[in-house]
Amino acid sequence: xxxxxxxxxxxAAWLLLILKGSFLLFWAVVLLIGLIxxxxxxxxxxxxxxxxxxxIILAVIFSVPIIVAVFAQHQxxxxxxxxxxxxxxMICYSLYHYSRFxxxxxxxxxxxxxxxxxxxxxxxxxxxxxxxDGIHWLIFLSAITAGTDTCAYYIGCRWGKRKxxxxxxxxxxxxxAIGGVIGGMTIAVAISLIFRVxxxxxxxxxxSAFLSILGMIGDLLESIIKRGTGFKDxxxxxRGHGGILDRVDSLFFTxxxxxxxxxxxxx
Length: 267
Known about the structure:
The protein is 74% helix and 3% strand. The termini are far apart. It has helices at 4-20, 23-45, 52-62, 64-68, 79-96, 104-129, 134-159, 174-194, 201-229, 244-265; strands at residues 163-165, 169-173. The mean pLDDT is 88. α7 runs antiparallel to α8 (174-194). β1 (163-165) and β2 (169-173) form a beta hairpin. The protein has one domain (4-265). It is an all-alpha fold.
């Protein structure tokens, strides 16, 4: 229950935001998620190295691509501008504090990963929202990532035996991963019928399977970060679910792939 009830409430709030919220409200919520997630990342990436003011500054720097994505509805918008501005801000931060840290290159390298992992990936949620059928595709993507995560967790707990990546995430199993993909595909078909996602049945199956696998890779990416920095969860904000990044890592990672598939496939 500690995991189920908060999960349902979060899913309902997210669905309501996508369906009823304006683009600016959606941008504001994604930005808030990005700022909190960036702060969680900085706590993991720089344990015992930063003051609280540093974490706030870095959270803003990592979220610059999201901030700039407020212009995603305009044709001239380019996500690369946000990444470039964040990159320059991270360089300036590293230069200013160069003598303060024992290894400034580590500070810069982990900062660049933070820009990509949080700001760059999350900005594609706004780019998806700006598409003609963006609302439906966002619901489609959210359902797949949530369905994959939920099915992988419960099937893995019930029937999981073979470890998927024991060195990175000991609790994940092959059976859970297979169940997660099947669950993601099933819910994708159901959502496509309810919200009239503009794609054929076979396309929905292939796309949902691909996005389910990508979502698990995104989750493993965060596990690498947590394993490398000695953290079990990215934070404690969400009871039973860890931190913000623990809930959105799969969604962040899959959003760019879906966006560019839609753009270059002509959907």
